[in-house]
């Protein structure tokens, strides 16, 4: 492959200056052509779980919205509800959590929209063009307000993820732009195995299951597989370790992520750009509060119109960094994957095979010019 065939990834490093907002302006100018005058622009961002601190700060999102307006677009800041029943399970709960975390229409300069509706089921069904690696996911339900946007700007906080190895733009699109049913479809690879011999009948999981998929029969837990939405809440809640992930669950989950991303991105074609923030890189994702200690020093911001290239470049920059604290002895081309017990490059390789982008890239370092 020649250099001219490589995807472009623009990089603003934090090594000499940490002018986040000016750096974001410099990077956005390289991908601003995905926004046309008058476009309704969905600004996809994770606004943080209640009690967390690793999410992207509101001033960063505000700068992105201001830049979109300068390009002639009409931004709205958006995300979707969660499968697990905590601070973002419904749209109203999410907006309350977002406000506690500093996200309001006034702070970001744009409307805040929970794109899949109050309960998380509002969406438009689209086909996933093809399936590989044994994945059965052939349709995905894109959250309705995202589906009807003209263009999409994906702001991703790069960090670890216990089941996917890491979360970047691919995961942000795949899990964050779809309705509850499609989240469940991706998480089906993670449906917990039950060791009923460990169950003491305490009933904590039954009480916590929002989808009423669990019950007690003769003082033992019973799961209704038809009702189960694979949110994994029981997996993390159970004090007796009754639940565990099946073999290769993390790898199959990543394959599902890539397929779901293919479904979402097929809606936008050339009208989407990705901006990755490689800072506050913790072992766990922003859904976990707290998400843990930093794994590497803050690195910088990347921008691209290639979802595969930007995630690969993000992992490469992390691999080139010196891990911190208890992670100091880790040496791997996939530091976050090694910490979380999987090969997190699998989602990137699968996305490339599905035609979403190119793992070969040119990293073009940007400096503040004004």
Question: How would you describe this structure in keywords?
Answer:
8-stranded mixed beta sheet, 370 residues, Alpha-Beta Plaits, two-stranded antiparallel ribbon, alpha/beta, Rossmann fold, 2 domains
Note down, in words, how this protein is organized.
- The protein contains 13 helices and 16 strands.
- α6 crosses α10.
- A hairpin with a 3-residue loop joins β8 and β9 (165-167).
- The protein is α/β, with parallel strands linked by helices.
- The chain has two domains: 3-181 and 250-365, Rossmann fold; 192-244, Alpha-Beta Plaits (2-Layer Sandwich).
- It has helices spanning 20-31, 58-70, 91-100, 105-108, 144-147, 169-176, 180-187, 204-208, 233-237, 249-268, 307-319, 335-339, 346-353, and strands at residues 7-13, 40-44, 74-79, 112-114, 123-127, 139-143, 151-157, 159-161, 165-167, 193-194, 214-217, 220-223, 243-244, 272-278, 300-304, 361-365.
- The strands form five sheets. It has an eight-stranded mixed β-sheet with strand order 4-3-2-7-14-15-1-16, with helices on both faces. A two-stranded antiparallel ribbon has the order 5-6.
- The protein starts with 6 loop residues before the first strand and ends in a 5-residue tail after the last strand.
- The mean pLDDT is 95.
- It is 31% helix and 20% strand.
- The longest helix has 20 residues, at 249-268.
């Amino acid at each position: 492959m020649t250099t001219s065939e490589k995807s472009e990834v623009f990089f603003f490093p934090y090594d000499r200056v940490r002018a986040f907002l000016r750096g974001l302006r410099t990077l956005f100018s390289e991908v601003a052509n995905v926004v046309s005058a008058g476009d309704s622009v969905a600004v996809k961002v994770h606004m943080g779980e209640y009690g967390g601190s690793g999410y992207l700060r509101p001033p960063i999102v505000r700068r992105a919205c201001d830049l979109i307006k300068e390009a002639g677009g009409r931004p709205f800041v958006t995300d979707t509800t969660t499968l697990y029943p905590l601070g973002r399970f419904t749209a109203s709960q999410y907006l309350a959590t977002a406000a506690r975390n500093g996200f309001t229409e006034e702070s970001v300069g744009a409307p805040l929209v929970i794109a899949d509706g109050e309960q998380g089921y509002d969406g438009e069904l689209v086909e996933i063009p093809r399936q590989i690696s044994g994945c059965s996911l052939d349709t995905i339900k894109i959250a309705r307000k995202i589906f009807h946007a003209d263009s999409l700007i994906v702001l991703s906080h790069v960090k670890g993820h216990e089941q996917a190895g890491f979360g970047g733009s691919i995961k942000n699109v795949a899990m964050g732009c779809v309705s509850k049913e499609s989240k469940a479809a991706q998480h089906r690879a993670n449906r917990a195995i039950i060791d009923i011999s460990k169950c003491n009948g305490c009933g904590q999981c039954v009480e916590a299951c929002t989808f009423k998929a669990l019950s007690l029969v003769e003082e033992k837990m019973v799961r209704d597989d038809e009702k189960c939405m694979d949110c994994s809440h029981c997996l993390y809640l159970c004090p007796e370790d009754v639940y565990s992930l099946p073999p290769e669950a993390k790898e199959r989950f990543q394959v599902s992520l890539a397929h779901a991303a293919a479904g979402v991105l097929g809606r936008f074609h050339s009208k989407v750009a990705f901006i990755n923030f490689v800072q506050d890189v913790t072992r766990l994702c922003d859904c976990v509060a707290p998400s843990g200690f930093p794994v590497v020093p803050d690195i910088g911001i990347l921008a691209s119109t290639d979802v595969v290239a930007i995630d690969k470049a993000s992992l490469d920059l992390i691999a080139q960094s010196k891990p911190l604290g208890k992670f100091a002895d880790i040496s791997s081309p996939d530091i976050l994957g090694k910490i979380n017990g999987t090969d997190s490059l699998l989602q990137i390789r699968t996305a490339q095979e599905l035609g979403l982008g190119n793992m070969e890239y040119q990293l073009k370092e940007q400096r503040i010019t004004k």
